[in-house]
Amino acid sequence: MIGKRNGKGKSGFPKPGIMWFWAALGLMIIGYSIYADGVGDPVRSDWRTVSELVGEGAVEKIVVVNRETAEVHLNADAVERYSSEEGVKRFGRMPAHGAQLVFTIGSVDALREDLKAYADDHGVAQPAVDYENRGDGFMGLLVSWLPWVFLIVLWFFIMRGMSGGGGGAGSGIMNVGKARAQVFDKDKSKRITFKDVAGLEEAKVEIMEIVDFLKKKDKYIELGAKIPKGALLVGPPGTGKTLLAKAVAGEANVPFLSISGSDFVEMFVGVGASRVRDLFEQAKQKAPCILFIDEIDAIGRARGKNAGFSGNDERENTLNQLLTEMDGFQTNTGVIVLAATNRADILDKALMRAGRFDRQIEVGLPDVKEREEIFDVHLRPLKLDPQLDREFLAKQTPGFSGADIANVCNEAALIAARHNKKFVSKEDFLSAIDRIIGGLERKNKIISDDEKRTIAYHEAGHATVSWILENASPLIKVTIIPRGKALGAAWYLPEERQITTREQLLDELAATLGGRTAEELTFGRISTGALNDLERVTKQAYAMVAYYGMGDKVGTLSYYDSTGQSDFALSKPYSERTAQEIDDEARALIDRAHDMARTVLREHADGLRELAELLLEREVVFTEDVERIFGKRKKDIEREERERKAKEAAQAEVKAAESAAETAPEPETAKEPETAAGPESETAKNE
User: Fold this and answer.
1) Rounded distance, CA 511 to CA 505, Å?
2) Which position among 459, 508, 581, 585 bears the catalytic label?
3) What pLDDT digit, counting tens, does each position of 463-500 carry?
4) Is 251 a catalytic site residue?
């Protein structure tokens, strides 16, 4: 198995391939070149040098090759003489055997005449002249054929790449229309099951029914039920839609094909539709199977909404093919389509109808109980403090998704390791939550004393108003340490509720304006530090009037567009008079919230001052400090009173049950029935 995984044979060596052939050919060429250089090539020279050697009687013979070059063979004495150090300086390193010099000739007849004249002038014997015709040999053959071999090999690799043989599915030009779906079989190791998916109980019930149908389909077929053709997972990012699909792949005993919506998008015309056809063809061959399309909004956007594009838009063609394959003239049997998106409002209505996606499964943000289960999953690999309370962590992370909780656990482990701790503690998790919400601490940021004092009173104003007002979110921590772009921050623990009343929204507006109001009352001036507060207040006030119908003049009207089509509207859905009324009512709500904050801060000016000075001293203030300054919140007192009364009532019921059990009469013991002693019984006794 090891050799098979590494692409090696039984002996442990890689299997031979085309690259081995080219490696061997290259080694042969290099070896030949080295061997040829070892034999020794003649030294390049000219006729003037050769004529001097002829005059000295050192030339034994001259071989004319192909009537172009002449190879000079020196006699043994000359070779020995010119191999010395002085000869090397003059001629270079001469070979000991064969031709020692080579030069180019212009004409054979001229060479012969020059040799004869030079020999006669110096009174030496004329060297012999031989003639040879030679081929180019192996190197010449290689040089002549190498370009053709290179072109043939290049063409081979191009065709191989076009056919997709060198890569995975759809890697070549010829396979550009093939779908690049990943197949998960039931035998795949490290499968994710529903046990690994914490929370999402309702979504798991819906999705498990599809898996159960594939496992026990006879039970449903007997009643005439049909399996849903598709299910659409809808929810915010990070809530576990893709994880839920992975769990389906791990639980179902059928093939599971996974592909992303962006995999259908290509620069070539018609490729998206071709890949859709190929994808469903693969699914039909593996039926029954599950097909998962992640981020389906990449191809499922509503048609006809692309400004500047015609009806022949490539994305729309892909969507049309997807609609046909999911529920067209030829229905798919045994192919269940799962899809995930966080933008269901922009999907085409034809894609959302029953028969294509029979179910829309909402995968929302987890509540406090589900967050505790998610923490249990992500805390398994961590070395934790034994005293760590998971319920406390779940309460500290309202509005966090599953991905956010996983990030919190990882950040806490990193912080603990950075401080060389033996385990991850509660403080590390709180620091990780602060890091994710507020950003990185910037303790080295230069802030003057006046600015720091303004920031302290600003944050103390938020904390004071939110603590005093009944419906505002309770405070967790206040800090004047800069984080991210913020110069200070206050952390609250909002109540997890499904609906919000007008009074609650007004209290939240007042708490948000508490910082700006504290600056006004304390210093008599305002600063730019409340920009984010004013932005949030303005948006919330306009939403109260224009969306939630909480305005007195505008009344019970809502201009909120839940379909998401407002981007294509050419005009506002209300008149200019109504717009003026909305502006007036939003301003009136903000002014009312501002007056509420001003009233609270004036009544608790001493507490505001004490809290601000404590912030300047310690830079971080927690709930216990605020409770010590202002006392317990009204809601906390009421809750404790309810809990006390409920506990007393439970104790009273227990006592009443115990006293009732003590005063109740003891049940009489059952007597044995007396039987009349007749003759038969007496006879039986005697017997």
Assistant:
1) 10
2) 459
3) 999 988 888 887 778 888 887 777 877 777 777 777 88
4) no
